[in-house]
Amino acid sequence: MQRDLLDALRCPAPHEESWLVAMVHRADGATLIEADLACPVCGAEYAVTQGEAWFHAAQDRVLSTMPANASTTPLPDVERLAAQLGVMGGLAPVLLAGGYAAVAADYAALTGAPVVAVPTASASAPLAIRAVDVSVLHVGLQLPLGASTLAAAACDVAHLVPDDAARLLASIARAVRAGGRIVAPVSQELPAVLMGTVRTLARDEREWVAEMTAKSSGLVALRRSPPPV
């Protein structure tokens, strides 16, 4: 996992957004190999193991340990995906979840953008998605990233039951900044909770592309009250 991603990480437990405290045990340059992550609000603990970060709330199963199912989308075309997401370079990461995670390394090489890969139906990230500019997160149904921390996202988790897929997609959308794009297969509809916060840009027989139109709320800055007069 890339060290730069630490600023975007949040505890996925159901409470107000909170940064995570990191204790790094081993790193290779900008890549964290072994680290402990802890939430100062609820005390939850997570880990970076062999370069991959593991997150899940107590009530969730980790997506990448669920039984494998056939993806509804063939291996994505990287150039098509880059055009759909519209991100070249920059500091804010692009998230590729489910079937899209398979091309994470190629996408990072093509666009120069940092990538967060969320694999599903595999006990560990396939070698094909491991790369210097790719951070691999194993998550439950709540994405451990803060509001408006992503430049864009592509999500293919239509193999999940509809309620779980909708919950995860809503969590991912919340992390995409205003003006950022979301790509998903047509078999995976936009959750009702997102209506009014996104607008559809394109749709064909394979995928839809939408744009976030509203900024999600995130961490609340605390300020000292003025002294009494």
Short key terms for the protein model shown above:
globular; single chain; 229 residues; 11-stranded mixed sheet; Rossmann fold; alpha/beta; 11 strands
Name given to the CATH architecture of the domain at 59-212: 3-Layer(aba) Sandwich
CATH topology of the domain at 59-212: Rossmann fold
Instruction: Provide a count of the helices.
Output: 3
Binned, the helix content reads 10-25%
- The total of beta strands comes to 11
End-to-end separation: 50 Å
Strand content: 25-35%
CATH superfamily of the domain at 59-212: Vaccinia Virus protein VP39
Largest sheet: 11 strands, mixed
Strands in their spatial order, largest beta sheet: 1-2-3-4-7-6-5-8-9-11-10
User: What structural class is derived from the secondary structure elements?
Assistant: alpha/beta
Q: Topology as H/E string?
A: EEEEHEHEEEHEEE
Residue windows where pLDDT falls under 50 for at least 5 positions: 67-73, 219-225
Rounded to an integer, what's the Rg over CA atoms?
17 Å
* Average pLDDT level: 84
Protein name: Methyltransferase type 11 domain-containing protein
